[in-house]
Write a structure and sequence with these properties.
Largest sheet: 7 strands, mixed
Number of strands: 11
Radius of gyration: 13 Å
Shape: globular
Structural class: mainly beta
């Protein structure tokens, strides 16, 4: 059984940083494309960053967020710097191409 568990969310002031983690079990990270998505209330789910053959960042993440993975620990990370209030959302990790397995999400709230 595949399980993805996100952590690291919280409340932070604008300009601050957070590091999200996604721990996987029942899945081999090395063999999978891994992504971070986010969804704000009333908005569609948005791809934030992808780690696969290479890395990809959505426009909102470019230059501020960094996706990385530790395959030995089966853990995916998202380092988020220079956070803005518009980054407030539930953040999800996903595995597979197309994304097949999803975590339950971790809430990020950025205050102005």
């Amino acid at each position: 059984q595949v399980r993805l568990v996100e952590s690291g969310g919280g409340l932070v002031q604008a300009g601050g940083s957070l590091r999200l983690s996604c721990a996987g079990s029942g899945i081999i990270f090395t063999s999978n494309r891994l992504c971070w998505y986010r969804q704000a209330p009333g908005k569609e789910r948005e791809l934030v960053a992808l780690s696969g053959e290479g890395t990809y960042y959505g426009d909102s993440a470019q230059g501020r967020f960094t996706i990385s993975r530790d395959n030995a620990k089966n853990t995916l990370y998202l380092q988020m710097n220079s956070l803005k209030p518009e980054d407030t959302a539930m953040y999800y990790c996903a595995a597979g191409s197309p994304p097949t397995y999803w975590g339950q999400g971790t809430q990020v709230t950025v205050s102005s």
